[in-house]
Q: What sequence folds into this?
């Protein structure tokens, strides 16, 4: 990760003051509160939490306000803060089949057990700007949707019971799950690390890759088997107590993509899966993650490597928006010495080029000095 190099101290202090004034804007306009951002800009809060790898709505809102709405900068702030937190262990796997559901849809079964739960979504609205949104009539709070506590079986489990879906890939008994935040990513990466990378990857990048798989740049034909969003309980196994202790609830979005598979020498024709799980209400990210996850499974399913979305080194090395931003934005830092070396090299090569042709250059080579 490249970070800014200190320049003139006075100039930097003035730049900070200018940005603080720009961030605040017109002092006659009321400033944004953390609560307003949490309650009214929930989608950006969820994205910053997910790609920042830290579930804390208030901290995400503070970072968004400090970054003046620059989400990647806010994600950077959250990740930097995350590194300062003490680490006391790993929670047990969350049970999404026990989720308190606020939204659950399937594009594969109309009448699925538990029903379709539309919940809060843009999906069924007209994309028209509501110029009366700030009016008193529109400001009335709607009724809050209730969380559904009934057990709702997964669509992929239903297909699995019929022998039509591949078994859910499981880690070997006693195998340690990798931790991308504790050790650098290495290749080839197993699926546990790939999913971690995708979960905190840039939504736009994963969306483009997922879209590419739908346009033929990978051997996939996806169906949205199920998308569910709601609250799950996080538990921690306390060794001194000998049992699991609930730590609280978090909201997540889970997506199970169903893909056609013609079979191989080891496996019969059946459906295969792509998986996505992210913090908060983030269906587009979860769907994109599931599409890319399935594309990255090409080798274990005996398919051919034909598309960028299947190349794990390409996908995983470029999906992190913090690393990408640092590498791109370091170009703004001084490169005077490097450029002068390049300039001298090009000048020498150009003089040799014209000398070989016994002709004079049409421009003065020393004009830039």
A:
């Amino acid at each position: 990760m490249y970070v800014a190099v200190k320049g003139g101290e006075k100039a930097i202090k003035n730049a900070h003051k200018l940005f603080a004034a720009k961030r605040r804007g017109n002092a006659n306009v009321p400033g944004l509160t953390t609560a307003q951002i949490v309650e009214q800009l929930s989608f950006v809060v969820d994205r910053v939490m997910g790609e920042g790898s830290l579930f804390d709505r208030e901290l995400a809102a503070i970072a968004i306000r400090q970054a003046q709405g620059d989400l990647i900068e806010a994600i950077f702030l959250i990740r930097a803060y995350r590194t300062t937190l003490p680490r006391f262990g790993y929670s047990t796997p969350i049970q999404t089949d026990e989720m308190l559901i606020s939204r659950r849809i399937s594009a594969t079964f109309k009448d699925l057990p538990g029903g379709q739960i539309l919940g809060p979504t843009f999906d069924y609205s007209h994309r028209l700007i509501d110029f009366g949104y700030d009016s008193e009539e529109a400001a009335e709070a709607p009724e809050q949707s209730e969380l559904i506590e009934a057990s709702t079986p997964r669509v992929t489990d239903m297909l699995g019971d019929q022998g039509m879906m591949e078994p859910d890939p499981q880690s070997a008994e006693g195998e340690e799950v990798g931790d991308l935040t504790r050790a650098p990513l290495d290749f080839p990466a197993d699926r546990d690390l790939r999913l971690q990378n995708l979960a905190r990857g840039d939504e736009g990048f994963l969306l483009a890759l997922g879209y590419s798989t739908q346009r033929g740049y990978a051997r996939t034909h996806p169906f949205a088997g199920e998308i569910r969003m709601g609250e799950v309980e996080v538990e921690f196994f306390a060794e001194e107590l000998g049992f699991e202790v609930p730590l609280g609830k978090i909201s997540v979005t889970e997506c199970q993509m169903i893909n056609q598979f013609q079979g191989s020498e080891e496996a019969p024709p059946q459906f295969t899966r792509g998986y996505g799980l992210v913090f908060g209400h983030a269906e587009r990210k979860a769907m994109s993650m599931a599409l890319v996850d399935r594309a990255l499974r090409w080798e274990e399913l005996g398919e051919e490597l034909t598309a960028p979305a299947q190349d794990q080194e390409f996908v995983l090395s470029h999906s992190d928006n913090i690393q990408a931003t640092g590498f791109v934005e370091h170009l703004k830092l001084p490169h005077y010495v490097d450029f002068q070396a390049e300039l001298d090299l090009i000048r020498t090569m150009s003089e040799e080029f014209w000398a070989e042709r016994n002709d004079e250059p049409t421009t003065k080579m020393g004009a830039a000095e």
Observations:
- DSSP finds twelve helices and four strands in the chain.
- The chain has a mean pLDDT of 85.
- The chain has three domains: 9-82, 96-120+145-167+185-325, 336-369.
- Strands lie at 100-105, 222-238, 243-259, 272-279.
